[in-house]
């Protein structure tokens, strides 16, 4: 069935058995509010969940009776995307480069790392 540009109520009568809408049900001060996000402005209330759902069904039908289904084609506007060159790309660790250059204990730190590596290598080669 092709819809194109037909009053929605006619189509609704033909396919009403298979239409489903997400309904948000909220409790406020002892009453329930039902809202249909897919149909802006379509909401209803009830003193119970059942009444709110009954009322929202009627509100959906009323909303759909007022609208018309149509399609709109929109040409996609090409967007210019800047792709950084290899020179512009910065390694994620580059921000840490040189942060220890003036730290007098850094050489001792590197020496300790080297000593720990040698010890691990010796343990792994002898075991």
Distance between the termini: 77 Å
CATH architecture annotation name of the largest domain: 2-Layer Sandwich
**Number of self-contained structural domains:** 2
Portion of residues within helices: 25-40%
- Largest beta-sheet characterization: 3 strands, antiparallel
- Spans of at least 5 consecutive residues whose pLDDT stays below 50 are none
* Topology-level CATH name of the largest domain: Double Stranded RNA Binding Domain
Alpha carbon gyration radius:
34 Å
Q: Regarding CATH, which class of the largest domain? A: Alpha Beta
Structure description:
By secondary structure, this protein is an alpha+beta fold. The protein folds into two domains: 64 residues, Double Stranded RNA Binding Domain, CATH 3.30.160; 26 residues. The chain is built from three helices and five strands, in the order E-H-E-E-E-H-E-H. The strands form two sheets. Strands 2-3-4 form a three-stranded antiparallel beta sheet, with helices on one face. A two-stranded antiparallel sheet has the order 1-5. A hairpin with a 2-residue loop joins strand 2 and strand 3. The termini are far apart.
